[in-house]
Design a protein that fits this description.
The chain is mainly α and about 475 residues long. It is about 55% helix and about 5% strand. Helix 20 crosses helix 22.
């Protein structure tokens, strides 16, 4: 009987939708509805509502499963009073802008609220503090369960989802490099090429001579060329680069080493003239496969001498090749020296710095970014190099600030033209610097305190540094 009533209610609802009386379509309730037409429609409405609410129960699909609660993160969510500001800042930018904000907030010792922003499962650029949320998203999309407990070991390796595993490995590497290397030695070969590449990249943190046997084994026997190439690059950073082979000698042939100065003690490197596009392409291909120390040796120089002698800004393509080679295979000290040299030029190539900043420490990155601002770069250009969370004091009284205030004073300026520059300033500044910038823009540029372009600066000025 229930099925017959359920089937008949389809016609009842159709007639009501068309504005027609539906009581004649419900003969099974004829006695209950009565003879008076208006009263019958009201009774039918009540009966059909009760029937659909009580007798008809929607069954969930068989593949539906209950997900665990969203895991808590190691850092707390930012204060509720600041969430509206954070939401407006998030809404004002693209995916890169959102990740920069996540890094900025994490550097202050907080996280974004999950209702405001969550990283995707494959968002490798998200701060490591969000790894449990990425693992939760990976678990939600999978058909098996993994429940990790405690720190990462070779025994519980499979209990971690990839995002959480990488974060746990990075934490272990920072705390106990030997233990992290032992875990990798036990489980490395079981992973796919992309996973091996991500895990091996973690070894770049705290790289030491103790890692040499492990890296040499991968460089000699790994089945994936990109994994072997990374192992070779890590060895080169430790001074265990490849020997000077024919390709490196060929690359060195595109350059000449000379001397200058009164006593001719200063060495210089000069690029030979490129006559054809084929020669240019060949030189760039050789740069892609050479390591920094081997290239220096082929020129008859040490790695430090090559860094001092290289003629930056004489040949843009050669500069790119050397910077890429250094970021891949030079020591940390040489990478820092090249980055500092690039930032020291007001017209330095920002793309070269993009190659090098992943190798810099947060302190070095902050110093390089401050140097860029002093040399006349805009806030947006500096942010593109540094990313969020650099926490710089020296963002006031720089050319970028003066240019921003001048732009705000132009009579026919559109309000949105300067908004990205103000957002970048808010991302870069320390809390004290953001407070100074906010007061200066309100006082000097005449902006309203509630101007939405000031949102990121206001968020920075209000967000406490927890020192984590």
């Amino acid at each position: 009987m229930a099925e017959a009533i359920y089937d008949a209610l389809g016609q009842v609802l159709t007639r009501w939708t068309m504005g027609l009386p539906a009581a004649p379509s419900a003969p099974f309730w004829k006695a209950e509805l009565g003879e008076e037409p208006v009263e019958a429609e009201l009774r039918l409405l009540a009966l059909s509502g009760q029937f659909l609410g009580m007798a008809v129960i929607a069954e969930p699909p068989t593949e539906l499963r209950e997900l665990p609660d969203l895991p808590a993160l190691a850092l707390p969510a930012m204060p509720e009073t600041l969430r509206p500001l954070a939401r407006r800042v998030l809404a004002a930018g693209d995916a890169r802008h959102k990740r920069d904000l996540a890094h900025f907030v994490a550097a202050r010792g907080w996280t974004l609220h999950p209702a405001d922003w969550m990283p995707a499962a494959n968002d490798d650029d998200a701060p490591d503090v969000y790894a449990p949320w990425r693992a939760w998203a990976q678990a939600a999309a999978a058909t098996v369960e993994r429940r990790a407990s405690g720190g990462l070991t070779a025994a519980n390796w499979e209990d971690f989802w990839p995002a959480a595993r990488k974060a746990a490995l990075a934490e272990l590497r920072g705390r106990d490099p030997a233990a992290a290397r032992a875990v990798l030695e036990a489980r490395f070969a079981d992973e796919g090429a992309d996973a091996r590449l991500r895990m091996l990249a973690v070894t770049g943190q705290g790289l030491s001579e103790a890692d040499v046997p492990f890296l040499e084994g991968i460089a000699a026997a790994d089945r994936a060329p990109k994994v072997k190439a990374l192992a070779i690059s890590l060895l080169a950073r430790l001074g265990r680069g490849s020997a000077v082979g024919e390709d490196v000698i060929e690359l060195a042939g595109f350059f000449a080493v000379g001397a200058k100065g009164l006593l001719r003690r200063t060495r210089t490197v000069t690029a030979q003239a490129i006559k054809t596009s084929a020669q240019r392409n060949r030189r760039q291909a050789l740069f892609e496969n050479a390591d920094y120390s081997a290239f220096a040796a082929a020129l008859g120089l040490s790695a430090d001498e090559l860094t001092a002698a290289w003629p930056w800004r004489d040949d843009a393509d050669a500069d790119w090749g050397v910077a890429n080679m250094a970021g891949r295979s030079a020591s940390d000290a040489i990478v820092a020296a090249i980055a500092e040299a690039q930032a020291d030029y007001g017209s330095g190539n920002l793309q070269l710095l993009h190659q090098l900043t992943p190798r810099l420490t947060p302190v070095q990155c902050s110093a390089i970014t401050g140097q860029l601002l002093r040399r006349g770069r805009s806030y947006r250009e500096a942010l593109a190099v540094a990313g969020g969370g650099v926490n710089i004091d020296a963002v006031n009284n720089v050319p970028a600030e003066a240019a921003m205030i001048r732009a705000l004073g132009v009579a026919d300026a559109r309000p949105g033209d300067i908004a990205p520059e103000m957002q970048a300033l808010g991302m870069l500044a320390s809390r004290a610097a953001a407070q100074r910038a906010y007061e200066g823009l309100v006082r000097s540029a005449g902006l309203l305190q509630a101007d939405p372009r000031l949102d990121m600066i206001r968020l920075n000025a209000a967000l406490e540094q927890r020192g984590v």
